[in-house]
Amino acid sequence: MAASLSRVCKSSLLKTNYGTLFNQPVHNFSTANQWSRGRKMLLTCLGVTAGGISALIYALDSSVKASGLVAHAPTYKWDFYGIFSSFDHQSMRRGWEVYKNVCSACHSLQYVAYRHLVGATHTEKEAKELAAEVQVQDGPDETGAMFMRAGKLSDYVPSPYPNEETARAANNGAYPPDLSYIVNGRHNGENYVFSLLTGYCEPPAGIQIREGQYFNPYFPGGGALGMAQVIYDEVVEFEDGTPATASQIAKDVTTFLTWTSNCEHDDRKRLTIKGVAVFGTLISILAYAKRQKWTIIKSTKILYTPRRKQ
Known about the structure:
Elements: H1 2-65, H2 89-101, H3 124-132, E1 135-138, E2 147-150, H4 164-170, H5 189-198, E3 214-215, E4 224-225, H6 246-261, H7 265-299
Helix pairs in contact: 2-6, 5-6
């Protein structure tokens, strides 16, 4: 009788324990499954929302830029494109000649000083001679009066007009923009400037151009602008003997204006190349040291041998 009772109790105990042990993990697994499905749905919703917002932003940006009356400037293969490419400094020097002899009659370079030209387009002696050609107002002197003096390297390129009102009056109400950062201030930068300088043509049928305006399909706002075409063959004579074709003149002055907008271009690329080389070397050394340090630990096999009872 006692033996039978003992067997029944053990059977009941074992049934209860195993039921508890087996039921609990099933419940936990079900909860984990639900949490995993909920997380997947949340991530999916977030992804769809982010994609929709990105598509909306792109559509708005394209709609703002799109215009049926504006030709989009093509992308040209400039000398300074590419990781290891720099500015063509001879082209920049010719671009300064174009600006000085053609563009400076209307446009200013108020953020470019003569000292910036040293080592980029001219030597220090040449830059000093260029600065000395202009007269700069300075003062006051001992008597409190302002006076004129020859320019120095620290002086900035003078503006052709004393103020905006004078500039507008001389250009039929149009204000010639400063060219210091013109490439950065226009969409597609250097390609836009080159296309604008070489893109003058007769207006197509149906487009009326007022007196004193000229048609250029690359100019936003209908193509009508107040600046006449100034780039022609042989409009300047380069001191190095380069043939002064219209495309060569436009290319050189665009290169120069790209440099005025990004004076640190060559230095930035040089620093990037040095940084990639240094960090690449350091990463290789660290990877090799890490492999040597952890090889023994990763390849070691640990065995557990239980101690015998004495």
